[in-house]
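Predicting holo structure, NAP bound.
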Amino acid sequence: MTLQLNDSSLFRQQAYIDGQWVDADSGETFPVYDPATGEVIANVPRLGAAETRRAIEAAERAQAGWAKLLAKDRARMLRDLADAMLANADDLAMIMTAEQGKPWPEAKAEVAYAASFFEWFGEEAKRVYGETIPAPMGERRLVVLRQPIGVTVGITPWNFPSAMPTRKAAPALAVGCTMVLKPAEQTPLSALAVAELAERVGIPAGVFSIVTGDAEDAPKIGGEMTSNPIVRKLSFTGSTQVGKLLMEQCAGTVKKVSLELGGNAPFLVFDDADLDDAIAAINVAKYRNAGQTCISANRVLVQSGIHDAFVERVVELSKTVNVAPGFDPSATIGPLIDDPALEKVARHVADAKTRGGEVLLGGDVHAEHGRTFFLPTVITGADMSWEMSNEETFGPVTAVHRFESEADAVRIANDTPFGLAAYLFTRDHARIWRVGEGLDYGMIAINTGFISAAEAPFGGVKESGIGREGSQHGIEDFLELKYMAWAGIRDE
Ligand code: NAP
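Done. Tokens:
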């Protein structure tokens, strides 16, 4: 397949290190597939530890000069980068749909979201203020600086191929850090396109490098990133299993780590909820990206009094969800990312059936498109013994649990090692506070399915991660405090 881009030079098939477009030392490449067709759309270099080390060393050379620039000059460049992404949004979205599968309009919305991080963090970096502290001794002055942590690395997943890299790179670059980033095997092209635009707006060589590799290369690239003493911080988004491994690897050189890991989001609907709001939210929280997001509603818990009406409306909604290739204008959801993703969704549905779940809609692959196109699926009778109640399904499957009391709802919702996002639907304000405070989650969406924004702190508790991305808290993760005690300031 040849993509009809307005600007074909955004389609890069080389890695980007120290301002150069490079191949692997071995000359080897790996294929990138269109998940809708299974066709190879690009071949990208298979880098390893040696190339990653060179990228890290370049990031070290570039860092002091980058940090020395005025915050407003870095901000201007990041603003230019955001503008360049928006100006090229059609092409960037096309590249994303081709490698990730999501419908083209949804990919375009992701490009805008991804660009917003450069704009917002560029502005915010102008406000990285220090502190003065009332001193315990008269001749002392105590001052705290907030300085860039230095060379950082990022590792990102395939489900948001543009926004995950920019959510990490934007705060890092804004405050004067440099970053070497490894995108996922399935979706390196969107990150490479951002690097192409970064180069065009004048981000200096070495400040932002992209190292590519396939699943076999990832441990070598990650091994270098986590063991190299030059690197002071790792920012990882992906599975909890890999996050734990990388955290362990970072212990050897005591790096700062931010981990945005898996979720198992409960979606609580109380008897007094506005059904229209709850259904509109299911459309976003369940069907966006075909259910392949870390904040996808994974356990839909509905109180008895509203259960049947809710289920009827979810079935109605799900019938309007059209599964088709992402370039088909009628598509509302595209394919799942690959065969293992399909196998997981199919396994969860089969498990639900054997445990007495009633499949009211879907439950299988699309008859015409086949492959990884899974039908919007609604299943009732769910409980916490089901596999899908304990693992992220990452597919367009709505499994409805029934609960009786508020206490039950909170207990079930918290019955998981994860704690990323939770959704809450009720019109009772006292309940919003009680339940909101009782849920062990980093983010609570109240009467909405939409929660992500550059301005807000995104992140989880428990095994969903450490740290926050977005908001002023996202900037903190790329800063170190430096306390300076000045003595000898005596009266004349
Ligand atoms: P994954 O398997 O953990 O992969 C994520 C990234 O880690 C990829 O770039 C992968 O490289 C890399 N990786 C894998 N093994 C590695 C190793 N040993 N050393 C270094 N890097 C390694 O996760 P995924 O399946 O791509 O993504 C889905 C997961 O991400 C879900 O659990 C989802 O909830 C989570 N997620 C979380 C957030 C959040 O903000 N909390 C956002 C989006 C997604 P390769 O691709 O080359 O294997």
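Residues 250 and 380 are 43 Å apart (CA to CA).
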